[in-house]
Specification:
This protein has a five-stranded parallel β-sheet, sandwiched between helices. A two-stranded antiparallel sheet has the order 3-4. The protein contains four helices and seven strands. 36% of the residues lie in helices and 23% in strands.
Amino acid sequence: MQKIVVGVDNSPGARRALEWALDEAALRDATVVAVHAWQLPYVLSTPLGVVSVPVDDDATAEAEAELAAVIDEVAAAHPSTPVERQVVLGSPAAALIEEGADAQLIVVGSRGRGGFAGLLLGSVSHQLAHHAPCPVVIVPSPAD
C-alpha cells in the first residue's frame, strides 16, 4: 500500500496539509502517516555547566494528545482512510525525511507554529524542499 507522510503541529497550515493528504490518500488508496515531531526547549550554558531539560512522560503524552486531537478532528471527514500516528522527539524536518524514505509523498503546511508570519516558507518546508527523499507538497496557508 502507498504511504503519504504529513507533518502535523496543530497550526492552521498543518491542519490544511492533513486535509490535503487525506484527500490525496483517498484518491491513491494510500495510508496517511501523521508525524508530530517536537523538540526540547533550548538548553542554556551557564558558568556551572549546561542546564539540561529532562524528557518526561508528561511531555510525550501531551504531544501524543495534541496529535490525536488534530487527527480526530480533521480525519472525521475521511473515515475509510487509514491514519497512522508517529510522535517523535527531535527535529521535525529530520523526522519527516526519515519517515518519508519509503513514502510516495511528504505533505506539510507552508508555515508551522514558529517563525515569522510574513515568510512564504517555514524552515521545515524549506528543508524538505531541498532534502526530502520523495516529492514534497507544500500546502499554502489560508491567508496565502
